[in-house]
Amino acid sequence: NLIHQLYSQHFQLYIVLHNFQLLLNLDDSEENIEKKKKQMPFCLLLQGYAWDKKGDNQKSLEVTEKALAHDPEDIECLVHKGMMLSKMWYMDDAVECFNRAIELRPELHTAYVMRARALYYMGYYSDGYEDCERALERFPYELGAYVFKVKILIEVGQFDMADEILAYLEGEDLAGSELEFLKGFVLEARGEQEEAWAIYENIVNRHADREKNIFDVQNLAEVYHHMAVLKYGSKGATYSQVDELIDKGLAEDPRFVYLLEM
Question: Which of 34, 175, 244, 255 is the most exposed, having the fewest neighbouring CB atoms within 10 Å of its CB?
């Protein structure tokens, strides 16, 4: 299964790069110059998607910036650039990309969610919460907006409101490790460390053995960060135990700032 996944990813990247090269190889007739002008940003963006899927955020960012050089107001490129910058923890720059995308297309709900994510990690909880609300006004089924609403409510101590959203999501028959993580986060914030630890441990133990669905944790580094915090504050814990959790988290995301700070 792993070999099949790796082959599939590399084959998709090969197809994108091959089609991109075909476009570059067109002669400079007037018709082809116009074709290149119209299709180049999209081809570069597809290349950016492929590099992102392969896990190379830097390469994805580079080709997306090339696409924006052809069309600085390509909204999909602006959003993807913002996503890559946020994955690389350049949150201020990411917010600028999302701001521009929203300015160009105010109804684009995904841009609000991505900006809410960046604002959350920057500690701007009120602004992030408002973006979640804006996203849901435009698309009531945007799961990412619910996720960050819950995280923000936990950070500001509104546990009951967070519980209400979690109950709503469960009532919609949603399941996945992201929902489990949010439940653990609430328990941790309420001081129920053992229960929270059990949930986090279950997530990391099961995550490697199954394919991710749309409502699974997308970055295990965040789970390991919470585990490291709990371990650090527990009786009898050693620094080596904490370091082991930090290292596991950084193996998932070498740029996860909270783990680097620890």
Answer: 34
| Neighbour-count burial for 145-154, b at 16+ CB within 10 Å, e otherwise | bbbbbbbbbb
CA atoms within 13 A on the CB side of 9: 13
Q: What is the pTM of this model?
A: 0.82
Task: Report the C-alpha gap between 27 and 20 in whole angstroms.
Answer: 14
Closest alpha carbon to 169 in 146, 199, 138 = 146
Q: Which residues of the chain have pLDDT under 70?
A: 1-39, 175, 208-215
CA 27 to chain centroid: 39
**Which tokens belong to 213?**
């669905």
The stretches of the chain forming alpha helices (DSSP H) are 2-24, 30-54, 57-70, 75-87, 91-104, 109-122, 125-138, 143-155, 159-171, 177-189, 193-207, 220-232, 239-252, 257-261
| Contacting residues for 125 by C-beta, under 8 A, at least 6 apart | 119, 152, 155, 156
Both tokens of 240, joined, read 């080596």
Interacting residues of 92 by C-beta distance below 8 A, sequence separation 6+? 122
Task: Return the structure tokens found at 112.
Answer: 């609000």
